[in-house]
Design a protein that fits this description.
By secondary structure, this protein is α/β, with parallel strands linked by helices. 49% of the residues lie in helices and 18% in strands.
Length: 388
């Protein structure tokens, strides 16, 4: 199959890689593996001209499509037709519906595709109903990348940070983990650092005995920590970069730059029956390296998205996350995400259909100071539930 994708909109909010992959999946789902489809992303001015010249309607619209109705070529390829989408109109409609631009473009792509298959809602109510059902079928196919709602894993490192500030026994991250689980968290995350700045080895051992959901141990690939993790046997480990001078993890793991070391580490945990996740930036090269080293999961680093200072930058970073999650999923990896997510920016990431779990810590603990830990977890859980 061939998808010819052209963009003259200049709209950085549009994730072109997602459009391409959606178009390819639509062709495959329709059994058109020898078909060619053209998709053109443009703006309102061009769309208005096309609508006027070809339909006699002097106004912009969201999507237009033209079937080619050609017989198969010598190689058996059928030219299915053209779909034109206005990103400007899509953005306005997305705002009215409270959804992301790329989500709306996906819906318009499906609408145009079903038109190319011969359906036309303008031919009457019965045809409109048939077309709506067909669109729903393809949308469900594109959206249904996971079988259940996104889960929430709570990182309790900051509870330990507060405890270590006084060198005492309170607050207890083990007790905090229990409260989080009772409030609906489906996992507990802790980072056992080489310098033991917050979580201690004793905490991890107690958590292994008390956590009822899933214990995810974040760690650097240092031999001392690897041996401790293998001895404790968490439900999964997440390998992260670790710098002694950093306040928190500052970026993704460079898997591509240290493949042999990470591959050996992944193999040791795999032999022990512990799945490994790699905390990586939303970068295709790192995803490919994650596949090569045998990881089960990747956790997409959402830090730059969370730290973005304006809407344009936030949209650009979100598109990178979205595309990376799709790439990882298609490569056979399971996909989690986290870092810097809070009560304002979590919903779009939770809505990504390839993401299974979000790891959130600082925002929940900061909120807990104001409303209590149980309420803070429940509030975040509701945001994720509504989005996914």
């Amino acid at each position: 199959m061939t998808v010819l994708l052209r963009d003259e909109s200049g709209d950085r909010r549009v994730c072109l890689e997602m459009v391409r992959r959606d178009a390819e999946r639509l062709l495959a789902a329709a059994g058109m593996t020898r078909a060619e489809l053209s998709v053109f992303i443009t703006g309102d001015e061009t769309m208005r001209r096309l609508n006027r010249d070809h339909r006699g309607r002097d106004k912009t619209t969201n999507v237009l499509s033209w079937p080619q109705d050609q017989e198969p070529g010598p190689d058996g390829t059928v030219v299915l037709g053209d779909i034109v989408i206005s990103s400007q109109t899509a953005a306005r409609e997305a705002g009215e519906r409270g959804q992301g631009v790329n989500r709306r473009i996906r819906r318009l792509l499906v609408h145009g595709f079903v038109h190319l298959l011969g359906f036309d809602h303008e031919r009457g109510e019965e045809e409109a109903a048939l077309m709506e059902a067909e669109e729903k079928k393809y949308m469900n196919m594109l959206d249904n990348r996971r079988k259940q709602m996104v889960s929430l894993a709570i990182n309790v490192d900051h509870v330990a940070t507060l405890r270590q500030a006084r060198g005492g026994a309170e607050p207890d991250p083990v007790a905090a983990a229990a409260v989080c689980e009772l409030a609906g968290a489906e996992g507990i995350v802790v980072h056992l650092r080489e310098d033991r700045r917050h979580i201690q080895e004793r905490d991890v051992r107690l958590l292994r005995q008390t956590v009822k959901s899933k214990l995810n141990l974040e760690m650097g690939a240092a031999e001392e920590i690897i041996k401790i993790a293998l001895d404790i046997g968490p439900d999964m480990v997440t390998l992260v970069p670790e710098k002694r001078q950093e306040l928190t993890t500052e970026g993704g793991l460079d898997v591509a730059g240290q493949e042999k070391k990470i591959q050996d580490t992944v193999a040791r945990f795999r032999d022990a029956g512990v799945p490994v996740s790699l905390f990586i930036d939303p970068d295709e090269g790192q995803i490919e390296a994650a596949v090569r080293v045998g990881a089960t999961f990747v956790e997409i680093h959402t830090g730059r998205y969370s730290d973005a200072e304006d809407e344009k930058s936030r949209e650009e970073e979100f598109n990178l996350i979205s595309a990376a999650a799709e790439t990882a999923f298609e490569a056979g990896l399971r996909v989690n995400a986290g870092h810097g997510l809070n009560y304002l920016n979590t919903a779009p990431v939770a809505a990504l259909p390839t993401v299974e779990e979000l790891s959130i810590g600082h925002a929940v603990m900061a909120r807990a100071i104001m409303v209590g830990l149980d309420a803070a977890v429940r509030e975040m859980r509701e945001i994720i539930r509504a989005a996914s």
